[in-house]
Amino acid sequence: MADLWNPVPMHKIYYLILLGFVVSCTHNHREFAYVVNSEQVDHVDRIQLVYRDGSIADLKKQSDHWTLNDSLYAWDPPINTLLETMARMRVRFIPTEASRPTILADLATQSVKVNVFEGGKMNRTFYIGGVTEDEQGTYYMAEPDGIPLVIDIPGWQGALRSRFVMGINDWRDRHLMHYAKDEIHILEVQYPLNQASGFKMERSGTGWRLTLPTAEAPGTPSEALLDNYWFDLLDVGVESYEDAPKDQQRILAESPYCRITFVKADQTQESFSFYPIQEMGRTERYWIVLSNGQWILAQTRILQKIFKSNAYFFNQ
Q1: Strands (E), 164-281
Q2: What is the pTM of this model?
Q3: For residue 101, cis peptide bond before it (omega within 30 degrees of 0)
Q4: What is the per-residue pLDDT across 228-238, written as a single tens digit (0 to 9) for each?
Q5: 189 pLDDT band (50/70/90 cuts)?
Q6: In this structure, is residue 271 part of a structural domain?
Q7: Residue range of the domain that includes 264
Q8: Please, what sign has the CA dihedral across residues 60, 65, 68, 72?
Q9: N or C: which end of the chain has fewer CB within 10 A?
Q10: Are 138 and 128 in contact (CB under 8 A)?
């Protein structure tokens, strides 16, 4: 962004004055010489958001989902909002020459750089800065022209900055688990404080074989309920991804309410440990601690459908 401060050639200033006159004549029809939107966002297959703190949200389109920084699933709702914004954003007005230094300073200090790719090749780069005083416009500048503009979405009230500027974890998909059924060999559910309620589901052909930890099965488990439980696991959503809390040692010193472990066909494992959060005598949320150290918050009402005892599978 160092080039933001390069002197503007006189011919560009004359051009801006002329352009400002043309815009003022056509303002009611919103016909602007600058095109800031992407007309075919369905062709966009990668969006790179480079933030001022050095972090990068690298969003890549796959056959059936988007990824975040190559290793994580990305969340569809904010990506769809981002694509819609890129398709609909327009020039609200062209700033006066007198306001340019202020806007350039804003872009130089708090903008996010947006690289847009189509067909694997970068086809445009622009910067999204802060908002105007009335909070109805957003500062914008594209490479290579370097001319600051104020943009908005016609008919929509509010600035656009928040659609581009999000924390890295805010771009992550909200599903807790991402597995293909055929990659899991064993699924084990443990209740450390009530071990008799646990169970293990082991792949058997196209279905599952259920085993109990402390007793013989009271009958034949329902294949439909075994399959339903698997789909319930994949459907669980989380509230947010978090840094480890300050009292993490106290939490981890206790036994989790539930621990779910997945063993893949290659014998690699991933576990999810669920620790209840007591608030006003009630458990409205749980900490979920993954085997890789990630901390996640989820709501009890969402998790209830996977907190099943082995008796559930024998309810014919």
Answers
A1: 184-190, 199-204, 207-211, 240-242, 258-264, 269-279
A2: 0.79
A3: no
A4: 999 999 999 99
A5: very high
A6: yes
A7: 181-314
A8: negative
A9: C
A10: yes
